[in-house]
Structure formats: structure tokens, C-alpha cells
Design goal:
This protein has about 350 residues and is α/β, with parallel strands linked by helices. The chain folds into 2 domains: about 190 residues, no CATH class; about 130 residues, Toll/interleukin-1 receptor homology (TIR) domain (Rossmann fold, 3-Layer(aba) Sandwich), CATH 3.40.50.10140. Helix 1 packs across helix 2 and helix 4 crosses helix 5.
């Protein structure tokens, strides 16, 4: 028996054991709430064109929740924005081998914000995951007791930020990866980092996130981590990836030497606290940075007061991660694209190209 046939038989046995989810069929929400035109949450006229569109919160009654991926299911139908075959197959396998059991949540409402790659990735935590909590501040939820299930470990900085973003009526519950949860009412929170107008480009970006949330996040973080509100953006910053395994600047020493007349400071961000990263970016007048999660920290810069030079190893769709965000903040954004094998290659950067941008 070949491997393909064996896999089909195993999948059939697993399907008979737990029930097969039909990925083409989706739950219809029992209720939909919109954030639009709520003066405290989202006013379209206060946002740029790419930030506009309907923001909907879906509520599903009597569903089983897999909090590790924010997958809600009812018999053979599912609801999840980022679900794919690999994730569902993984749940099939885990349930069959580990015998997932169902735990009941006592609060009337339950929600979750995780997906498979959001647990430890700085970009996805701050741009995809945490903005979803904004919807819990809708007046509809203010008198409801809500449980937020978090199956992944969080460092203290992220937990502190989460607590500052959620209303007082939301309880954080450490969920098990190997449990399912029965929910009377599951709140499926929207991804604010996704486009809400018709587009062929589905790449997430902070550029789609409403200004109301961006302002709230910045103010919450500055308050929670005691960041000075009087920091003046006057420093020139080079973000180094010398301690990374990919996307390093091979000629970084030569670049720093060429930048001496401009008084650039070199910073590596690994190991730095969230407060330190916020302070570095809020103090910046010019930032040079290789494409990577470090540029998530554009969340903290002063609008209209910072120039960004982002370096790309190769022309890639992922360049829109930060260019759209810079546009919504009215930053002076510039990109330099180099020729390399792929997006993760180490490169020799064109020093003359950077100096030309700095002298404009």
C-alpha cells in the first residue's frame, strides 16, 4: 500500500471518528454588530481611503471553539478567517490521538484572538492579533461578562498591553491547546489589518487599521510603560539585523562609516523591552531598516515627523506591510529594492542610494 492510499484511509477513519469538517461550508452568524459610525470606535471620515469599509463583529450561538486557532465549529461547518486545510488536519490528528475533551465556559460570552503564527511573531501579534480586541469596546458588550481565551504563552509586556486594551468586563482565561470549549455565545472578532474594500491584495497591513484604534493603542502603551510624552523626534536610527539568521546587511560596517556625518545610532531590537522599542522609534527623525518585524514599531512614531528608508532584498508583495502603514501616518516613506535570490537573503546594500535619499 502506497503512502497516498494509506493517508486517505487514515483520514477516512479519523473523519468517521470525529466528524469531517466541510471547509466549503461556513457558519452563518446569529448576530452581526458593526463598529462603523460609533464616535468612540470608528468614523470613516476620520480615516484615509484604505482604512474605510464596514467592520463587522459576528456572534455565534452554541459552538465548539478551538482557541489555539480561533476556529469555531458546529457539526460539519466552521467559521475562521485564516483557516486552511493544514490547520484543520492538525486538529483532526490531535483530537484523534490526544482525545480532545470539551470544557464549558460559564460566562455568557467567549472570544479568542489567536491563530497559528501569531503567538510569538511581533508583527502578527501587534498588527493582526491585538487590534481585534478593539471591537470589545462596542457599547453592545459593555454590560456583558466576557471570557478571553488565550492558549499561547505571552511575555509580560504583551500581557500588560492586552490588559490595557480590553474593557474591565473581560476576563482573561489561560486556555489549553488540547481542549475544546463549548460557548453559549462566541464573539468572532474582526481582523482590522485586512482590507475592507474590494482588492486583489489580501496581505495584512497596519495601513488598514482605523486611526481610532491606532491612537488608543499608542496612548495606552505610552501610559502603561511610562514612556515620556515629551520625547522629541530628532535622532537618526539604523536598525541592525546583525544578530538575525536571515536578511542581514553584509556591508553594514561600511554603511555605518558612510553614515557618520549624519550621526546615526545603531540599534538591534532583540532582547529589548517593548518600552525600549517604543522610546527608540518615538525619538527617531530618520530610520533606516531592513524589511522585517522591527518596522512594526512604526506604530509608535510621531506622524509627519519621521522619514523611513526600508531596504528590500528583492521586489516582493510584502513591501506593502509597512508602506501602507507609513502612508496612513503621513510619514516620509522610501524603499530601496536590491537584487537577490529571495526575500530572506543577506544582501550588500547600495550605500549611494541611501545617501541620496538622506540628502533630498
Amino acid at each position: 500500500m502506497n503512502k497516498v492510499k494509506a493517508k486517505k484511509i487514515i483520514n477516512l477513519l479519523i473523519g468517521n471518528f470525529i466528524g469531517v469538517y466541510n471547509k466549503a461550508s461556513y457558519l452563518k452568524p446569529d448576530a452581526i454588530i458593526t463598529l462603523n459610525n460609533n464616535k468612540d470606535l470608528y468614523i470613516e471620515d476620520n480615516n484615509k481611503e484604505i482604512q474605510k469599509g464596514i467592520i463587522e463583529v459576528s456572534i455565534f450561538k452554541n459552538v465548539i471553539l478551538f482557541p489555539e486557532f480561533s476556529v469555531a465549529a458546529k457539526k460539519d461547518i466552521i467559521e475562521n478567517t485564516f483557516v486552511n486545510e493544514t490547520l484543520i488536519d492538525r486538529h483532526f490528528k490531535n483530537k484523534f490521538l490526544k482525545k480532545y475533551y470539551i470544557s464549558k465556559i460559564n460566562t455568557e460570552f467567549v472570544t479568542s484572538i489567536d491563530k497559528c503564527f501569531s503567538a510569538s511573531n511581533y508583527f502578527h501579534i501587534l498588527i493582526d492579533t491585538l487590534p481585534r480586541l478593539w471591537a470589545l469596546r462596542h457599547p453592545f458588550f459593555e454590560d456583558k461578562e466576557i471570557t478571553l481565551l488565550l492558549p499561547h504563552e505571552r511575555n509580560n509586556d504583551i500581557l500588560t498591553l492586552i490588559r490595557s486594551l480590553i474593557p474591565e468586563n473581560v476576563i482573561i482565561n489561560k486556555a489549553s491547546k488540547y481542549k475544546r470549549y463549548f460557548c453559549k455565545n462566541y464573539i468572532h472578532l474582526p481582523y482590522l489589518s485586512q482590507p475592507r474594500i474590494k482588492t486583489n491584495n489580501k496581505i495584512p497591513s497596519a495601513g488598514y487599521i482605523p486611526n481610532e484604534y491606532l491612537d488608543f493603542l499608542k496612548n495606552s502603551a505610552i501610559s502603561q510603560f511610562n514612556v515620556s510624552e515629551t520625547i522629541v523626534p530628532k535622532k537618526n536610527i539604523l536598525i541592525s539585523r546583525e544578530d538575525a539568521k536571515i536578511r542581514r546587511v553584509i556591508n553594514e560596517k561600511e554603511l555605518l562609516e558612510a553614515l557618520k556625518p549624519y550621526h546615526f545610532e545603531k540599534h538591534t531590537l532583540s532582547g529589548k523591552t517593548l518600552k525600549q522599542q517604543i522610546e527608540i522609534f518615538r525619538s527617531a527623525k530618520n530610520i533606516i531598516c531592513m524589511h522585517g518585524a522591527a518596522l512594526t514599531n512604526l506604530l509608535w512614531v510621531n506622524p509627519k515627523q519621521c522619514r523611513i528608508i526600508e531596504i528590500f532584498p528583492v521586489n516582493s508583495e510584502s513591501k506593502e506591510f509597512y508602506s501602507k502603514h507609513a502612508k496612513t501616518l503621513d510619514l516620509n516613506y522610501n524603499k530601496i529594492e536590491m537584487n537577490s535570490n529571495n526575500i530572506n537573503s543577506d544582501i550588500i546594500v547600495g550605500i549611494e542610494s541611501i545617501l541620496k535619499l538622506l540628502n533630498q
